[in-house]
# Entry
Amino acid sequence: MEALQRKRVAVIGAGVAGLCTLRHFSPDADAYSVVAFEQQGRIGGTWNYPTGCEEHPDAPDSSPMYCRVYRDLRTNTPRAINHLRDLDLPDGTDNTYVHRSVVAEHIQNYASHFRLLQYIKFNHRVISVSPADPGTACPPSGPSVKWKLLVECADTKSPEEYIFDAVFICNGHHNKPFIPEVPELKAFRGPVIHSSAYRTPDTYRNQTVLIVGAGASANDIVCELMHVANKVIILKKASAGKKYPDSFTTVQEVSDLTATPTGVVLPDGTPTTVDCVILCTGFQLDLPFITAECRLDIYRGRVAPLYRHMINCKYPSMIFIGLLTHIPFLGAGPEDQILFCKAFLDGRVRLPSEEDMTADCERDWQGRLREGLPAHKAHMMRTKLWPYCRQLAEEAGFPPHDPVIERIHAASNRNVVGVPYDFRNYRIDKVDAETFTCERI
# Structure
């Protein structure tokens, strides 16, 4: 195939999803010309922890000090399901729940092994994405709309226009903190930070810290602070239930309190001075480059209408990879999406009509609402992940995940929910395609 006939594919972001997209498109050089735009000067996205970032908790995403993780972060999914296809985690990785540095090394190894750096334009920020001809709809048999990207290089500050046949949005969903109003804390005048600015427990030694939230980051931070803080108060919804045993004397869980300028009054009437509040309230989607011409509605945690949580129903050559939440960090989900979309762009998969794709999207959305899920959980998977991945694999003709992967995920989740302060003390190993072992260490 002549070079001029190759489909030009843009990838926005060089984190895990972006690198994985490059890995599957770059070898097919006769059919595709692929380039990734990364606003940072490095790969890895969320998994980066720059030296000295503790001193720059509010660094913007254009800064080399930009960081969204804490120093001692470990994964909350087992290593057996927490790596990309075709490359295992680094040798000597014994812990089931590995340190963030191991994941970062895995990402570097992945980029090196598949020679992906040559396809990345570093320090290039995408300013806008829009259809080159917004009046042209995309037929279900394949893409026809061209995409116009306006991109700014950090060195020149001069925007440049590019035209592509398809665009993959892979900029992640852990960039922009969600900072809600917390009525109970309206009167508090002390320090308030988001969990994305938390780095080490040492900062909070001998302090009283109030944690807002009961998700994964809240649990990790509580488990670090309980050993150094005088007291850790957790403010969460009553429906979240009690997580920590009474023997954890420095931890107190409450679903209601009253704030004062310097602290809180607990439900039993006890006034307590609070040194800092940490909001473990998650993130919201950050897609400032998506223009109105893309014909998408973007909310805190939902992009619509997207067929199968990834394909723009109006313009199917615009594809979002990695909006899925509550999945293994590097395992199932995004890579299955990429393989499915590669099959679509190859012409091996035919999509339904725009009307049918939109109806499918709406059915999924309404089903989630009936389940009582909040609107920002529009792309949450959990147990929905595995039927989703199997469907993509069957339709696109790539190998599905071994059955044991789903079983390991379920076993790990039971521990995460049942003993959130202790689940990393379990060792889970894959034995074969069907079986695994799980034991406390």
Observations:
- The helical segments are 16-25, 100-113, 216-225, 334-346, 354-370, 385-396, 403-418.
- The first helix runs from residue 16 to 25.
- The longest strand covers residues 124-131.
- The chain has a mean pLDDT of 93.
